[in-house]
Amino acid sequence: FRLALIQLHVSAVKSDNLQRACGLVREASAKGAKVVALPECFNSPYGTQYFKEYSEKIPGESTQKLSEVAKECSIYLIGGRSIPEEDGGKLYNTCTVFGPDGALLAKHRKVHLFDINVPGKIQFKESETLSPGNSFSMFDTPYCKVGLGICYDMRFAEMAQIYGQKGCQLLIYPGAFNLTTGPAHWELLQRGRAVDNQVYVATVSPARDEKASYVAWGHSTVVNPWGEVIAKAGAEETVVYTDIDLNKLAEIRQQIPILSQKRCDLYGVEMKK
Description:
One of its GO terms (cellular component) is mitochondrion. By secondary structure, the chain is of the alpha/beta class. 28% of the residues lie in helices and 27% in strands.
């Protein structure tokens, strides 16, 4: 099946972001994409100072438009961090997934908050405004089961392992790495998660805006279960297309059967809730 990653140029005007995102979703559908993903922070600038201002409840304006365009195009639509979600007085970094009938299939709240300090380069603390999610998020398609993470979630190998154990063959991480962590770890982490679990891994970033307060790395990418980069964007706004070949995934798992060779008598990773 064809996967499309929309590397959107995000402005400060929510309505413009939504309109352009939906337009690119329609374009991707017209080119045969069955699963389409938007980046983290697709409808608002990324930064702790913006989260409260741009927050919405779910359902709300942004998710309603995503639902409508998913139904119109009859696709599976991963809404990036569709919005900073407000719920019960708390804010979450939330990704929504809509099916071909427009129904909400999954809602992933970012589990691991991005609190880092690289002296002289970048300091960021999502926990100043956001609360963490407390659950894994998977959804079924006619093609395969898909596991969801958001950006920093990708650094935690155990999360990807759980998804693999639960039968996911594609992991999608909307993310917004920056100019420090992006060149160092963006591709490395994707290839690691793909090889470790013999799955496809896709990441979808906002396009780079040098004038933004937080400059995203870009380079939305798809990695196959062999660890090969099979599609990759540059820094500009674009749509990345690739065909996900589940026969190739099955061949790789047969050739190197690590999943059946794990020593569960010696070690294990488990989902607690």
